[in-house]
Amino acid sequence: MCLVLVYGLELNYPPGAVEEKTVDLLKGENFTPEFIKINNNATLPTLATADKTYTDTAGSVEWIVLNAPTPSTKSTHQDVIVAVHRDNIDPNFSLLSARTQEELDSKRGDVPGQFVRQRQAKLEELAPKSPEELKTWYKEKLEFNGFLSSVYAEGASSDVTSGWFDKSNQHWENVKTFVTSELPGFLPESGFIDGATPGEADFHVAAWLARTAGVSGAKIDDVSPLGEALGLSLNPKVVSYFDAWKVRDSWKKVYAEGLH
Question: What InterPro entries does the record tag this protein with (predicted)?
């Protein structure tokens, strides 16, 4: 999402300037040997340029911002970029987290459960026929995803799920603390972090906020469910920032089918 928002819609890259390739994470397409050779972390976004391959969001967005047809500069707000990429508020974990048995049961039959099952199936398909130099990679990935599969398995024992519930509850406490005590300090009273129009820092914060709010049930034009999920009233600066984004054509286009 973030890269599309940056180069396609906010920085005026012309059609075809950046070749886009879709990698379906839900189906585990990032686990193919071909993709691993490009990005050993098997993560998105991945940006391959003539000089270097960027395998994380920060590096990818920075390159696209600095090389845009519309002149742009590196944000002076690098602290917020670092903040929204901290592991303890990772929206990918938010998606798979489950704080109670009821939440786990619900997610098992929805996208998170499908995500875990299909990724495990893809790994089990690819591992036996993987190149020798990738055997260890697949072994380690199977072990980690296998743990998620055991958590999401029907009838998983409390010995397996209790630790996940504890970790999930701590994660959402971290998100709550960030949203209430830290994020407002990065945000302006109105407009965007980098000025009148979105800049590098805004692309990162928008992506984090959209993903986290989406997991909480927020809509493309309504962030209030995030506050409800956290058991609080969102800081007016957070609401104002979300509202500044929701009226932009880029936001409406990228999230036409919902926050993700």
Answer: Thioredoxin-like_sf (IPR036249)
Domain assignment present for residue 151? The answer is yes
* Burial class (CB within 10 angstroms; exposed 0-12, middle 13-18, buried 19+) of 246: middle
Domain coverage including residue 231? 2-254
- 206 Cβ contact partners less than 8 Å away, ≥ 6 residues apart: 2, 5, 198, 245, 251
**In what helix (H) or strand (E) does residue 54 lie, and over which residues does it extend?**
strand 53-54
DSSP annotation of 127 reads G
Q: Find out whether 141 and 123 touch, Cβ atoms under 8 Å.
A: yes
Task: Count structural domains, the chain.
Answer: 1
- pTM over the 0.90 mark: yes
CA 200 vs. chain centroid, Å, equals 16
